[in-house]
Each structure stands twice: as structure tokens, then as C-alpha cells.
Amino acid sequence: MRSSVTGRRAAALIAGLTLPLALGLSALPVLAAPSPTPVPVAPDRQPGTSADGVALLRIVVPDDAALDRLNSLGVDLAEYKKPVNDGIEVHAVLSPLEAQELRAQGFDVRGAISDRADAAANRSERDSAIRSADAADAAETDTLTPLRAEWFTSLDDQRFLAVEVKSSATDAETVLTATWDSGRGTEPGSGGTTTMSRFTDAGQYMYHRFNAPLSVTATPAKVTVTSSRGGTVTVPVTKWLGERRKPPGSHYVADFVDHYMDPTEVTTRITALAKEFPRLTQIVDLPYKTNGYRRAAQAQFGAVAASTFYVTSKKYGSEGGNDLSVALVKPETPSAPLAVAVSGQAVVVTLATDAAGAISSTARQVADALNADAAASALLTASTYRGDPGGGLVAAAAATRLTDGLNAPASVSRQPFQMKALRIGKARDGSKTGVFLYCQEHAREWVTPLVCVEAAERLLRNYSHDPRTKKLVDGLDIFVLPSANPDGAHYSFYDFNMQRKNMTNHCAATAGDPAARNNWGVDLNRNFSVGSLFDGYSGASSTCTSATFAGPAELSEPESRDEVWLTNRYPNIKFAMNTHSYGGYFMWPPGAYKLPGRELLPRADFGTENYFWDASGHILSAVQAWRGTAIWPGRTGPVPDVLYSAAGNSADEHWFNRGIIGWDFEVGADLYDPATKQFQAVGFQPSFAEGHEEAMEFAGGQIAILEVARAFSKDKDRPESRLQVTGRTPASATFTFSIDEPANLYYTLDGSRPTLHSTKLTSSGAREGTQRITVNATTEVRWFSVDIAGNVERGYRPDGGGGGYRKERVEVGKKP
Fold first, then answer.
1. What CA–CA distances, in Å, run from 421 to 273, 435, 559?
2. 3-state DSSP call for residue 450?
3. Which pLDDT tens digit goes with each residue over 116-137?
4. What is the topology classification, in CATH, of domain 280-290+414-714?
5. Of 263, 685, 279, 706, which Cα lies nearest the Cα of 456?
């Protein structure tokens, strides 16, 4: 809402601003000197782009008196007021002439927030939405495309139903309702009915779904979805997860973690494993040491911003900074000068006094004096609070010891951390398919390193007596990095449990005060080089105190460079799993998009996407085998489809740069409470009893990933495909292909020989089925398929000159 004025507001304002000084404008409060040129704004934000150039602009005044004066002039002020470093920011609706006159009188008029062009764009968007809705209303019916309809059990054999359906009518007025039976042969609707939720991402309609799987008492056989636009579809309900898994042998051992472990303990644990199993393991020292669990020591003086300053040691606290002290002394004499003295590690500031003997030193003056003194500035730097001018008077203070504020025990080194990976395999010479298991990129995710440790223990301690384990260790080259963020994880354990990032402080002095210490660091899973913030992708921040700070540059952090080094150094690595918490997700690339428009990184091709889905059944069934936890279908898929955009994440780095098929676990699935019939989140650090269960079940998932990788390495089976005509009209024919395993298919329609450069079969859309192809004349289709392991259908050589490809004639005009 804006303040109301008369219809002659503009004229009155201009007249008021041009009155002679004798009539009172000289009484305006002293304002900040106007900038020689207005604050620059983007061209599409400049006043004047619409008919009369009226825009909502920022004005910064020094105090409330100036704001009152601005209001008395009849300025059309919005009901908005915010303190800023140099005064008070308010917003006003101004024409270009009004803005010019205010600047001429010393008012600090800044860039536009919005103008009439924005309103026009909003109206245009609204009109488009209305037209879309009207078109949907005018259509006979919408078309419903079923994406998934599945039932599953989770914990205590509780049954759940999950359904996803996409409507051709994308407007928000389209309502979908799901109805299901109580099993084969029962009446439709006997199981229940509910309205589905409309799922949008980045402003774009994706599909309809349940916000959470629905608890059902009986296993449905069919579900019918109807639309308020008239569309309807009935589909069978299939089982999600729960494939038959041969139970481990009676001598198979598990459960090797009994408490949360910090990175020092974890590293000691894998080092001990390497010593115990030297024929099967080795430690890989990663080349880039971290910054270390260490910080400069600091002390802050003052209670309000204007009177506050803080000091920061030049050395890390553990290397002498914690030994420094600063005292602020009030002399007993009037008119005393401000002075700084240093004796060893003690800095004493004698404050200035006025003629009456009162302290007259401001925070800015004390900070400047400390920085100007050669002896003091060799030990520390001083800054006012978050860029404040520091005009307030300081108070005397007894000698205050600087501290780095770190509370970890002495067993945690303060030096740069040597990250180590445990390499497991009988043949560690690069000849076997490599798998990279890495955990705890985010410090506060305490369960995740337990997952990696548990998986490593199971592999080594079952090797001698469990045939399946022996096949994995003999047939693969496995790299386990239990904590990819050791510094941040130590900080999370001992100082601030919600720490997400590492400990490297890239903030300038204005954001470097002790009160911001829990916000420093880089989000390592936003620091990689593909789809990054620096490439314009969404889901990371350039603000150094943001939880998703991407760092000053791609791969700026040693931790992320270590991951890249490992996957480059060992090019046999073909699979990876990045384990996070929490929420119970199973995801894969692409993981980021640009805004506006939700411009995704390239999706995985048709064959690889199907491989991701196909493998997920095996992997998630292994997770479920421990205690029955089911990862929901709606939390399985490419990262942006089920979660959000994550610019610069590591899975995209490994997939797009090195072709590594990588997944992301989010351990800690929601727990269902039968009493309340609600799912409850478990958080980053659940009780260890729950954390232990999560570690056990997802370690099973990591073992299953190894099984997928070994099957890949042994795969010699050639795919088989066939062409299926799905529809005909007198003037066209539509067909698609089916393949007996995840594979890419290449085809031609012009009679030419198909190669790897021919058109590649795609999916119909996100989470939809196989592409359908329409031809308008009788066509000979030639094609071949090749699976993820490189096996080509019928042994065809697409780079050669012979035949062997598939071919079939699709006729137009033939009766359906």
C-alpha cells in the first residue's frame, strides 16, 4: 500500500522543490552530499522506459527528521522503511522530473525497484495465464499422462500409494482427483479418493502428485485419475522396490559403528583398516590439504554498532593468536591523547579524554589507531562493526584475551588436514571398474561418514567367507572417502552443530566480526565447475555468509579439488555415490538449471536415464532390506525433478566432465507415525539409535551400488529392440521402440545407414515414457541399440561399412 496524495501531487511537489530558500527550504536537515552521478541501474530499470517514466525508486535519508521533511513535501512514499548503513532507506513513486528535483536538493535518490514496464510484464504474464486457462476451458477435455502409480511398504509393513500424473492443461485451475480400489476384483473407489497436489518448480508446471505417499490399508490394483477439465485415465498400480534379494549368508557380519565419529576418528579408522588388510587396501593421500580446523583469534568491544569495534589476530589462534590481549584504559587526566602501547603479547589502548576528563575516543578512532601503530598492527587488525562509521564513544575495558573460539579437544589437530581415501580391491592397478563412495560434503550431516565406514568394514571383514563380497572386492576398484569436509565437520561436532560449509573465511572485514563466525565457509557442494553460480545457474550464493556460498571461484577449495584430482588420477572410476542427509532421496544428474525459464543442464540421454531408474530398484531395495525403509518414488529421480537446483554440485562435475555415473543419497527418510498418520522428519543429527539404523540401511545401499558396478563390468549381453506402431491415420503413422534393457537407440528415416551420429531416441518428457515418432509417408526405419556397457545390438558395427542394423517398413494409409 502507498500513501495517498491529491491528483495534483506532481505539480505540488515540483512547486515545493523550486520555492526560494527564504520560504524555508534552507531548513532542510543536512543530507549526504549528492553523488556526482545517480547510482547506475540496469537499462531496463531506468525511469522513462514507459509512457511517463514513473517508477518506484529508493531514497536514502540520514535520519527521521529528513524523512519527515520528505513526507511534508508530498512525496508519494510507499509504506516501507529500512535502516541501512548510511541512514534510512525508503521507497517513493516518482517521475523522472521529480527524481531530478529531489537530487538537486541533496536527496540521495537511487535506483528503481520497479517501473511501469514491470507492471506491463506482470499484466502480460497474467493475460497469458488467463488465455491458457480460457483455452483449457474451451477444450473438450485435457489429456492425462500417467507417469507413475506404485505401492510399497515401509517400516512395519505399512502400505503406501504414490501416483504422478501430468495434465495437458497446465493452469492452476486444473484439479486432478485420484481414486483407487482395494485390490484385484474390488470396486473402483473402494480404497479411497483424494485430490492431488500441483507440483511446480521455478514457476513451471511439472505434474500432479501426492505431497507425501498415502497410507492405504489394502494393496490397490488400479487407480483412476480424473481432471476438472474432463480428462481421465486408469492405470495399474505396480510394486515399487522390494525385489527378491538373496539374504546374506549366516556368517555375514555387519554393524561396525556404535557412535557418531568426528573426521579425526574416521580417518584413524580407515587407516587402521588399511594396516589390518594390506593385501586388499591402501591409503590414498589426497594432494590438497585443507585450511585446517583453525581460525584467527578475535575479541569484540562495545554493545551497540556505532561504539563497537573488534580485533583479529594476524596469526591463527592456535599459533599464537590466542595469547594476545587488548585493554582499553581511561586515563585519569583531562585532554589526554589517544595512544597505543605494546608489551609482548599485550596491547594497551589509552583512550583520549576531553577537557572534562570524559572519554572522547570513538570506535573508528581506536580502530584506526591500532592499525596505524607498527607494533600493534604486526599482531592484529582492527575493524568497526560491519562497516559502521564507528562514530560512537567507546568504554574502558579490562585486558581481554583474544580467542579463536574453537572447542575441539587436543586430539583434533589445528593444522591443515590430510584428507585420505581408502582404496579397496584385490587388483588395484586400474584394470577394474572403479567406484567412488564419498560422504559428508556438508559438515552437519553426522550420519553420512558412518555409512561410508560401515560399507568399508563390511567389504573387508566379509571378504574371506562371503562369496558375494569376495566377487565385489576382486572385481572392482573401490575408493571410500568418509569425510569430504573434515574441517567443517570438526566445527560442527565441537562448536556449532548446524555448520554446513567448510571453515575457510572468504569474507571481507565488514562481514568478519566474531558474531558472524558460524556463517563463514564455502558450501563444497556448490564449489564445482559444472553448472555453477559463475555460469549463471541457480541454487548457490555469492554472499560469503550464505549457507550456499559458492566460494570466490569454481574449485577454489582444496576439498573440492581433491575430489576432482581423485577422479582424474584414476580414470577407471565409472561410478560414484555422494551421500548426504536428510530426507530420504535417491537422485542423479543433471542437478542445476538457470532462471528464468528453468534452463536445465543437458538431461542424461534416454539410455542412461533408464539405467539410472533401472539401477535404483536394485539399490533402494537393498536400503529397504535392513528395516523396511522405502525411498518414495517422488523422491527418486534427477535432482531438479525431485528437490531443487543445486548449482556447482559434485555429481554434475563428475558426470559432465568425466562421464562418471553418479548418484546422490539423502539418508534419513521421514518416519511414519501410525498414530498421527503423519510422516516426521529426522533431521541432520537424530539420536544415535536412529542414526545407527540409517547408517546400516544406506551402507546396504552402497554395497548394492557396487553390485550394479560389477554387473556393468561383466555385461556382455547385447540389447534387443523392436519397433511398435502405436497409431495410424489416413495421412500418418506413429511408432516407438521398446528395448529389453537400458540402452540408447539410433535411427534414420531417410534410408541411410544408422550410425552413432544418427538421431537418438529420447523420452517424451521428464518422468514420461519413450518418445513417439510420427511420419507422414510410408517410411523404412533403420536402427540399432547400444547399452550402457557398450554392447551393440546384433553385433552391428556403426563405425564400419556393413549391415546388421535393424529395419522395418512403417506404412501410412494402412488400416489401424
1. 12, 12, 12
2. helix
3. 676 666 667 556 655 666 666 6
4. Aminopeptidase (3.40.630)
5. 706
